[in-house]
Design a protein that fits this description.
By secondary structure, the protein is mostly helical. The chain is 79% helix and 3% strand.
C-alpha cells in the first residue's frame, strides 16, 4: 500500500525527533567529555609525526657530523652528503605539515566545547571548565608559535646545505649562517617548552574538571608530558 506523501513527511519528522531526543539525553558534562577525548584521539597523528621527526633529526645530525669532518679537497663528498641532508629537511617539512593538520583537527573538535560550557549549571564545574578551556586555547597558540619557529629553522637549514654545495663559499658567510640557525633553534626550544608547560597544565585541569563533573576516568601516566589517554567508566 502506498503511503501518502504528507504522512511520510510526518513519520520522518517523528523519527528524526526521536533520534535527536536520544542524542540530547547525554548530560552537558558528558558531551564535553566526548569532545575532549575526541580531541585527544585526533592528536594521535601528532604523536606519530613527533617520533618520525625525531628520527629524521638524528639522521640529519649524523650527516652534519660527517660534513664538518670533510676537507675542502673532498668537495664531491660534501656535495653528495649535503644533498642527502636537504632530502631529510624536505621530509621533516612534510612531517611537520602532517603534524599541524593533526593539531588543527584537534583544535576544531575542542572548540565545540565552548558553547557547552555556558550550559553547565554548577558554578564550580563551569569555572574549572572555563579555566581548562583557556589553557588549552593557549596551548594551541603555543603550538602555532612552535610550528612557525620550526619551519623557519628548516628553511635556514635548507639554505645551509645549499650553501655547502658552493665551492667558493667563504668561511665568514658560513659561520654567520650557522649562528643564525643556532639562534633560530633557541626560539624553537623556548616555544616547545611553552607548549609542553601548557600541555601539562591542561591535563591537570581536565582531570580536575572530570572529578567535579562526576566523570570517572582512568589515566595512564605519560612522563613525556603529552596528552594523557583517558578511558571513561
Amino acid at each position: 500500500m502506498r503511503i501518502p506523501l504528507k504522512k511520510s513527511i510526518i513519520i520522518l519528522s517523528i523519527s528524526l525527533s526521536t533520534i535527536l531526543a536520544g542524542c540530547s539525553g547525554e548530560s552537558t558534562e558528558q558531551q564535553i567529555h566526548n569532545h575532549l577525548e575526541e580531541a585527544v584521539s585526533l592528536e594521535e597523528g601528532f604523536e606519530q609525526q613527533q617520533e618520525e621527526i625525531t628520527e629524521l633529526e638524528k639522521q640529519e645530525q649524523e650527516l652534519y657530523s660527517q660534513l664538518i669532518d670533510l676537507g675542502t679537497d673532498e668537495f664531491d663528498q660534501i656535495q653528495e652528503i649535503s644533498q642527502q641532508a636537504i632530502d631529510i629537511v624536505d621530509q621533516r617539512s612534510e612531517k611537520i605539515e602532517l603534524e599541524k593538520e593533526s593539531i588543527d583537527a584537534s583544535q576544531e573538535e575542542f572548540n565545540q566545547v565552548s558553547d557547552l560550557i555556558e550550559d553547565l549549571e554548577e558554578e564550580e564545574t563551569k569555572a574549572k571548565a572555563e579555566e581548562m578551556y583557556n589553557v588549552m586555547d593557549n596551548r594551541y597558540t603555543a603550538y602555532d608559535d612552535l610550528y612557525t619557529a620550526y619551519t623557519e629553522s628548516l628553511e635556514l637549514e635548507r639554505e645551509l646545505y645549499t650553501m655547502l654545495q658552493q665551492e667558493d663559499l667563504e668561511q665568514e658567510t658560513l659561520t654567520d649562517h650557522i649562528n643564525t640557525i643556532n639562534e633560530s633553534y633557541q626560539q624553537v626550544l623556548e616555544a616547545n617548552e611553552q607548549f609542553n608547560e601548557y600541555t601539562v597544565e591542561y591535563n591537570a585541569l581536565k582531570q580536575e574538571f572530570y572529578e567535579l563533573a562526576g566523570i570517572d576516568v582512568e589515566y595512564e601516566e605519560n612522563p613525556a608530558g603529552d596528552e594523557d589517554e583517558g578511558t571513561s567508566e
